[in-house]
Design brief:
The structure holds two protein chains of two kinds. Chain A is mainly alpha-helical. Chain A is built from 13 helices and two strands; from the N terminus they run H-H-H-H-E-H-H-H-H-H-H-E-H-H-H. In chain A, strands 1-2 form a two-stranded antiparallel ribbon. In chain A, helix 1 packs across helix 11. The N and C termini of chain A lie far apart (69 Å). The mean pLDDT of chain A is 94. Chain B has a single domain, classed as P-loop containing nucleotide triphosphate hydrolases (Rossmann fold). Helix content of chain B is 35%, strand content 23%. In chain B, strands 6-7-8-3-9-10 form a six-stranded mixed beta sheet, with helices on both faces. Chain B has a four-stranded antiparallel beta sheet with strand order 2-1-4-5, with helices on one face. Chain B is globular, with a radius of gyration of 19 Å. Classes of the chains: A mainly alpha, B alpha/beta. The complex binds adenosine-5'-triphosphate and magnesium ion. The site of magnesium ion has 3 residues of chain B, from helix 1. Chain B: This is Putative ABC transport system ATP-binding protein. Chain B: Its main location: membrane. Chain B: It is a peripheral membrane protein.
């Protein structure tokens, strides 16, 4: 179980980059962008193919992310210049990407098992540091049957994800970042303050999908393959991460939400892993989409129910106190 | 400063809903001139403002700002030169962002937006100083979300945001109409203040005739897409509401259908 949870956190940290991208489109720009399902695969697929063809993994990963950025920009252009509804622009781009991804990949699955990837490079660099044995030594107190084979991915990916979080926080507070946020909040206003909202939407959706594709590229290298269908439902997973994170950790400030989104992505993975492991539930991996949907619904509805309950209790308490007072004054009269 | 030449705009042309919103408007505003615009509902006042700001494009005619023809410039480019406050207090600010962030966005209006922090220590001091001039205590709430402010406070903030970069043109479209009388009074005072301070070339639409008489040094009356009456200087200072009504009757030869246009 520990190993499974460890793996869940590990991939959760990588998926968190995708969730940050979804946060940028859905929350910051208020743009329900469904390109994600396609651009995730674009990142994984292009990076995979490049690696198989001998491109250095770092460069391949960056190109994968860039491809996602371009795909996102096209969705933005469809919406702004083409005046196509936001949802539809994303859907159109998503299905277009399905064919485009297959073109790039050449076949539905690209295997990376025997390739030198970013992940395997990090692992081998890491092995020479001896940090693993130190960390696993500390785990000894828990008397686990098995310890993780490497901490490299968890730690390095956590550093990468946090670095992206801090960059995103910084970006959203720059002059351009403020204008992007205002575009999602009040377009009329920011246009009257001389911001080119079309351009900001295009850049914003581009960046969002760049992050999604980067996440896809890393997940592909982590799992050892890129598959044409690995992006199906990705948008809902991203949304689930954003919504769960916001519900659990709050959304007061940008810095807080971005951290919450990362937390949400990890928790999502953990919940899914646990659900699959509990035998008497007999949940199969094909049930995951249903579980995701239920999770999102729960995260959306529960806070409202809790709030309504709290309000009701408060009103009842006030009413009771008033009644009490009345009785007392009647008694004394 | 602002020069409008023979501008016409018709909505839904050649349909039963056809509406000639502007008909051959010609006007020239000098630098620092403050004109108030009155006229009944549907007279074309907002349309005129939108043609100047670029949210609408006229069918024919030209708009010059500082001798530059801007009629083909998109709204966001023109707004480097134009400050605007809308009727709806919700329209001029971003509610989920803080007061200082809103001000920072306005501050960047006439500059190129860059990848540098929008709110800096120095700018904060500057914002605080300007907010103090409103006397609403907003200078102590720089980190408050604008969505939490009252309509009057938001409108005061919008006004500040529209003016403190000293735009070439200031457009105010019934910017006090959604406020209660005392708040409207306050915003009116602030308006007179900032327009005077920066000597802004201003067009202000209002349905409050008294306000139109009290403020500014020039007055237009619009009807059916035309400017039917234009006074300035001493003549404007001596004008009364009764004069205005008589004038309208003389020009249009009918009693003004009394709607909120009249006494507001
Ligand atoms: N987008 C539009 N499409 C069709 N007709 C429009 C549009 N905008 C304005 N109109 C019409 O053009 C005319 C002028 O409208 P405008 O908003 O300029 O009037 P106004 O003088 O600002 O009136 P009010 O005092 O009510 O604000 C009105 O008859 C209006 O119905
Ligand atoms: Mg109007």
């Amino acid at each position: 179980m520990f190993i499974a949870l460890f793996g869940a956190v590990e991939s959760g940290v990588i998926y968190a980059i995708m969730a940050l991208g979804v946060y940028l489109s859905f929350r910051v720009l208020d743009f329900p962008d469904l390109t994600v399902d396609g651009s995730f695969v674009t990142g994984a697929g292009i990076t995979g193919v490049l690696i198989v063809n001998g491109t250095p993994p770092v460069l391949a990963t960056l190109i994968g992310a860039l491809a996602g950025f371009i795909a996102g920009c096209i969705t933005g252009i469809l919406h702004t210049a083409g005046k196509i509804n936001a949802l539809l622009s994303g859907i159109l781009m998503m299905i277009a990407l399905y064919s485009i991804n297959l073109r790039f990949m050449g076949q539905p699955t690209v295997s990376l098992l025997n390739e030198s990837t970013l992940v395997s490079q990090i692992e081998s660099l890491w092995a020479s540091t001896g940090i693993d044995s130190a960390l696993n030594g500390m785990l000894n107190v828990f008397e686990l049957d098995r310890v993780p084979t490497t901490w490299a991915i968890l730690i390095m990916m956590a550093i990468l994800t946090l670095a992206i979080k801090f960059l995103l926080d910084y970006f959203l507070k720059t002059e351009i970042g403020l204008a992007i946020r205002a575009t999602g909040d009040n377009q009329k206003m920011i246009r009257s303050l001389s911001a080119n909202t079309n351009f900001l939407i295009i850049i914003g959706i581009g960046l969002s999908n760049g992050l999604v594709a980067l996440s896809g590229a890393l997940i592909g290298q982590h799992g050892g393959f890129a598959n044409l269908n690995m992006g199906i439902g990705m948008i809902v997973i991203g949304l689930a991460s954003v919504i769960i994170g916001e519900a659990l950790f709050g959304k007061k400030t940008i810095t807080r939400v971005t951290l919450a989104v990362i937390g949400g992505a990890i928790i999502y993975r953990v919940v899914v892993t646990v659900a699959l492991r509990v035998d008497y539930l007999s949940i199969q991996s094909s049930d995951l989409k249903l579980i995701t949907a239920i999770l999102v619904i729960a995260a959306l509805v529960t806070p409202k129910i809790l709030q309504a309950r709290k309000d009701k209790k408060r009103r009842q308490a006030k009413r009771a106190a008033l009644m009490e007072q009345q009785k007392e004054s009647e008694a004394s009269a | 400063m602002l020069n409008i030449k023979d501008v016409s705009l018709t909505f839904n042309e050649d349909t039963p809903d056809e509406k000639k919103a502007l008909q051959g408007i010609d006007l020239e505003l000098n630098k620092g001139e403050f004109v108030t615009v009155i006229g009944s509902n549907g007279a074309g006042k907002s349309t005129l403002m939108n043609v100047v700001s670029g949210s609408l494009h006229p069918d024919v005619g030209d708009v010059f700002i500082n001798d530059q023809n801007v009629v083909h410039l998109p709204e966001y480019k023109r707004s480097k030169m134009i400050g605007r406050v809308f009727q709806d207090p919700m329209a001029g600010t971003a509610p989920t962002m803080t007061i200082e962030e809103n001000l920072a966005m306005a501050y960047a209006r006439n500059k190129k937006r860059r990848l540098v922090p929008g709110v800096t220590k120095k700018r904060k001091d500057y914002f605080r100083e300007y907010l103090e001039s409103l006397n609403l205590g907003l200078e102590d709430r720089l980190n408050a979300k604008v969505g939490l402010l009252s309509g009057g406070e938001r409108q005061a903030l919008s006004l500040l945001m529209a003016t403190f970069t000293e735009p070439h043109i200031l457009l105010l479209d019934e910017h006090t109409a959604a406020l209660d009388p005392s708040r409207a009074e306050l915003i009116t005072e602030i308006t007179a203040d900032v327009v005077g301070k920066f000597e802004l070339t201003t067009m202000m639409v209002t349905h409050n005739m008294q306000q139109a008489l009290d403020l500014g040094d020039r007055l237009f009356m619009m009807d059916k897409g035309e400017i039917i009456f234009d006074v300035k200087g001493e003549e404007k200072q001596n004008l009364t509401i009764k004069n205005l009504l008589d004038e309208f009757q003389r020009i249009r030869g009918k009693q003004i259908e009394s709607d909120r246009a009249v006494l507001g």
